[in-house]
Amino acid sequence: MTPKTQGKDFNFFAKITVTDTTFPNESQVTIPFAGQFGFSLVNEGSDVIEYSFNGNTLHGDLTPGTPTAGMIFDNRRISAIWFRSNSSSVIRVEAWAASQS
């Protein structure tokens, strides 16, 4: 089978190094399509990473070495995510959808 090169790709992947100790003015992640079925956040670093879906309210944290080091959000639609941490930590972000909604 040859690579699929036509149409839009409804998959998103990014690894971001979080260095901000407060939520920044601009989101660190913007999902480039609407209508995703879900997304995941995985802390690949060694310090707690906190996340927000609006840039000012803490919505959760990802704590290394615990069940909350990685979270999967099914049937949750978001367009942007902000992160903060007390030290430099890497976050893995993936999102997926079947088609544009």
Report on the architecture of this protein.
The protein is mainly beta and 101 residues long. It has no helices and 8 strands. The strands form 2 sheets. The protein has a 4-stranded antiparallel beta sheet with strand order 1-8-3-6, with no helix packed on it. Strands 2-7-4-5 form a 4-stranded antiparallel beta sheet, with no helix packed on it. The radius of gyration is 14 Å and the shape is globular.
Topology of this structure?
Blueprint: E1 11-18, E2 29-30, E3 38-43, E4 49-52, E5 60-62, E6 70-74, E7 80-85, E8 89-96
Antiparallel strand pairs: 1-8, 2-7, 3-6, 3-8, 4-5, 4-7
Quick gist of this model?
This protein is mainly beta and 101 residues long. It contains no helices and eight strands.
How many strands, what sense, and barrel or not for the largest sheet?
4 strands, antiparallel
Structural class: mainly beta
Based on Cα principal axes, name the global outline.
globular
Radius of gyration: 14 Å
Strand content: 35-45%
Average pLDDT rating? 91
Structural descriptors:
101 residues; mainly beta; globular
